[in-house]
Write a structure and sequence with these properties.
This protein is α/β, with parallel strands linked by helices and about 240 residues long. The protein has helices spanning about 25-40, 55-65, 75-95, 105-110, 125-135, 155-170, 185-195, 210-215, 225-235, and strands spanning about 5, 10-15, 20, 100, 115-120, 145, 170, 180-185, 200, 220.
């Protein structure tokens, strides 16, 4: 969907896990099973924190801690994700506590009607995983573009890829006056800053507002429930 050019066009890129939804560990369980199936790793994610990491990065860390990093190559990673997606679909479907986080539907509804806003994703999930996680919450239609773990294992790079894709969806192409990354972890903040974007940190994951503020985001809020305030932040009404 191409939007008509607006000189004040803004791009808002959302993280998924801990920002838009909670899946009750569905992704971790699916990854753990896929690691065992593909690489014969038992408890492959033991001692690994997934927060803010890309899917390829998580696989690499799992293999590294078991001394099996030599098994990682493009083909084995492809096989891993082919095993992972059906497992994830089952885990998401069966999750009894899958949750869309407070204010998310209302905020996305509002932002999607703003003529000067382009919505996208900046997530460590591979694209198929992102769509699987969002599908249960009927959130996929809000996002026609993004940067994913399947694009790059480096979060800074996938944010840059999301921006490039978004520019192609604006007619005629032009630089965005402002880009925000919305996420719940320090990595969302750090990599967004490296990619040259502004940051809205939300304390709906493991990290408190106070903890997130230590990474100097532009804004930090408890959750996404105050729709009017967040829209004002993202559209430049609050500086």
């Amino acid at each position: 969907i191409r939007k008509l050019y607006n000189a004040l066009m803004r791009l808002v890129l959302f993280d998924i896990d801990g920002t838009l939804i909670m899946t009750d560990g569905a992704g971790k369980r699916a990854m753990s099973s896929a690691l065992q199936k593909t690489y014969n790793l038992k408890d492959g994610l033991k001692n690994i924190r997934l927060d803010g990491k890309t899917d390829p990065q998580i696989v690499r860390e799992a293999l590294h801690q078991c001394g099996k990093e030599s098994l990682l190559n493009n083909q084995s990673l492809h096989n891993f994700f082919d095993a992972y997606i059906p497992l994830l679909e089952t885990e998401i479907k069966q999750s009894s506590t899958y949750q869309i986080l407070p204010g998310v539907p209302e905020l996305l509804d509002k932002l999607s009607t703003q003529d000067d806003i382009v919505l996208g994703l900046a997530t460590g999930n591979i694209e198929r995983g992102a769509q699987t996680k969002l599908h249960r919450g009927n959130l996929t239609s809000f996002f026609t573009l993004g940067g994913y773990g399947s694009d790059s294992g480096n979060r800074t790079e996938l944010i840059r890829i999301a921006i490039k894709r978004a520019l192609k969806d604006v007619a005629p192409p032009s630089e965005f006056i402002e880009t925000f990354v919305v996420g719940d972890t320090p990595r969302d903040i750090i990599h967004a800053q490296r990619a040259g974007t502004r940051t809205l940190a939300v304390a709906t994951g493991r990290y408190s507002v106070k903890s997130l503020l230590s990474y100097t985001p532009d804004f930090a809020i408890p959750n996404l429930s105050n729709t009017s305030k967040i829209v004002d932040i993202l559209t430049g009404q609050i500086i």
